[in-house]
């Protein structure tokens, strides 16, 4: 797709078994890690007891043992649902891999359709089994509550599968979320409401921020009623632009706020997928994941949610499309640069294990491990970074403490354009230059975003000079932000006022810039000619 962007997470809910098709439990299932200690843990399957609504208290599945102490998640790994019906040995190996990676959390789908396939008939045992196994390894859990059973779905709506249909009743969805929070109180630290609702693949029949916000409100109230300490994470928005099946991530977040989402989440979540460009490097490109993230952050600040964070609850690369060396570099870069964002919350790599190693379908190859539990280069890269406690990059270290307080909150990681390093803040961009650090105001920084030129002067009186073989000056005024350079800049007279256009080609082959009080036209025959209006 456009720009190599990963536009969604299609197909993740169908194959829910680890390493399907393997016929033995020998060497192919050993976890080969750089520095792993295999923990042998017995995980009981539990006993399923089904009761219909009204037949007694909700004790369909045996009670769990007392909870273990949890620590807040920092870096985790997501599961696509495979663990819920995987053999015990596979669950053990998968979660041992998470701990060997250095991660401290898992993102676990708590699928409404699987827990309550018939109204009033609930089976918690698959989820219980993973919760206990995670606790035994001191892994915290982000529970992702989503996906409608047929009896609770909008009739005839199907996205990637029938499970993706929008719930017909926000109240019923909220009640289920409350039951989840009640059962896993003090065990699951945070809940994410739905998955990628700005995609009709996961929220059918169409992505709808108003309908999603209704679900979020209902879930928030019920979760807080049953577990006030649990965090509710809203959004789960994937980085996409408008198309017949996707809604632009920023527009979806704006639609949530317009629909009254404020006050009904403790954090927002985002999936900054991109298959070719590093997270920070995308800062120069419109609609890149980091640019959408910056815009969503600005929405939060505008609505008074500056104290809430954005969690990255999915990020990964499919080995079917991205070579291992490239993918490992992108994973390491993401882990490092995400930490530079003061508003960045926990992050989750997607996913633990392939659903189809060797498949041509990229959706089956996002795993950090192959189907026989062999670590990929992405696993080893992430393990290396986490083993160093996510060190600050040398570039970010150089920028630390250099920005004046007036610039406000950091909005982007440090990024490079050519040899030019810079970092965006709430109220300007900080450039590293040969003579020190120089602030560029937002309108000029946006204009110069893709240019490697660095400022050579401080901003003053609406203008700022930049590097350029023929000279380059940026002007900003209520009329807009424009660049003047070369012979036209040499001929510039302040009496012309500020520019109102960039330089452009005229119909007769000349170059021209227009100003508040005139124009400058250049041709090889006449040179620069100043005309006052």
UniProtKB/TrEMBL annotation:
Disordered: region residues: 1-23
Transmembrane segments: 31-51
Keyword Transmembrane helix found: yes
Keywords: Membrane, Transmembrane, Transmembrane helix
InterPro entries cross-referenced by the UniProt entry: GH, Glycosyl_Hydrolase_39, LGFP
PANTHER family named in the record: ALPHA-L-IDURONIDASE, BETA-XYLOSIDASE-LIKE PROTEIN-RELATED
Protein name: Cellulase family glycosylhydrolase
């Amino acid at each position: 797709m456009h720009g190599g962007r990963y536009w969604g997470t299609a197909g993740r809910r169908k194959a829910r078994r680890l390493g399907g098709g393997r016929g033995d439990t020998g060497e192919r299932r050993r976890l080969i890690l750089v520095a792993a200690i295999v923990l042998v843990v017995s995980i009981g399957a539990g006993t399923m007891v089904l009761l219909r609504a009204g037949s007694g208290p909700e004790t369909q599945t045996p009670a769990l043992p007392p909870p273990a102490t949890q620590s807040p998640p920092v870096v985790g790994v997501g599961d696509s649902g495979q663990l819920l019906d995987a053999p015990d040995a596979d669950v053990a190996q998968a979660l041992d891999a998470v701990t060997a990676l250095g991660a401290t959390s898992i993102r676990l789908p708590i699928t409404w359709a699987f827990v309550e396939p018939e109204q009033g008939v609930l089976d918690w045992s698959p989820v219980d089994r993973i919760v206990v196994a995670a606790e035994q390894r001191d892994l915290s859990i982000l529970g992702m509550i989503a996906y409608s059973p047929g009896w609770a779905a909008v009739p005839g709506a199907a996205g990637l599968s029938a499970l993706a249909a929008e719930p017909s009743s926000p109240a019923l969805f909220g009640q289920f979320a409350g039951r989840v929070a009640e059962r896993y109180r003090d065990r699951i630290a945070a809940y994410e409401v739905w998955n990628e609702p700005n995609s009709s693949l996961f929220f059918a029949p169409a992505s709808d921020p108003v309908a999603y916000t209704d679900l979020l409100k209902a879930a928030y109230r019920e979760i807080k009623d049953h577990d006030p300490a649990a965090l509710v994470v809203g959004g789960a928005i994937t980085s996409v632009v408008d198309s017949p099946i996707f809604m632009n991530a920023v527009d979806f977040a704006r639609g949530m706020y317009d629909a009254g989402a404020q006050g009904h989440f403790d954090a927002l979540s985002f999936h900054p997928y991109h298959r070719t460009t590093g997270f920070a490097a995308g800062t120069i490109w419109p609609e890149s994941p980091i640019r959408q993230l910056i815009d969503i952050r600005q929405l939060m600040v505008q609505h008074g949610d500056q104290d809430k964070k954005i969690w990255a609850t999915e990020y990964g690369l499919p080995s079917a499309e991205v070579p291992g060396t490239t993918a490992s570099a992108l994973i390491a870069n993401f882990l490092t640069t995400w930490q530079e964002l003061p508003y960045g919350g926990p992050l989750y790599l997607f996913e633990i294990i392939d659903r189809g190693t060797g498949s041509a379908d990229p959706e089956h190859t996002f795993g950090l491990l192959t189907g026989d539990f062999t670590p990929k280069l992405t696993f080893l890269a992430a393990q290396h970074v986490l083993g160093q406690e996510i060190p600050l990059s040398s570039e970010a270290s150089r920028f630390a403490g250099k920005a004046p307080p007036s610039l406000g909150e950091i909005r982007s990681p440090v990024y490079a354009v050519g040899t030019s390093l810079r970092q965006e803040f709430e109220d300007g961009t900080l450039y590293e230059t040969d003579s020190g650090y120089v602030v560029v105001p937002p309108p000029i920084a946006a204009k110069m975003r893709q240019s490697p030129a660095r400022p050579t002067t401080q901003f003053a009186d609406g203008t700022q000079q930049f590097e350029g073989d023929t000279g380059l000056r940026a002007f900003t005024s209520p009329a807009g932000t424009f660049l003047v350079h070369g012979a036209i800049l040499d001929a510039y007279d302040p009496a012309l006022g500020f520019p109102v256009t960039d330089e452009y080609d005229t119909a007769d082959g000349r170059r021209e810039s227009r100003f508040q009080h005139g124009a400058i036209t250049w041709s090889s025959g006449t040179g620069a000619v100043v005309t006052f209006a």
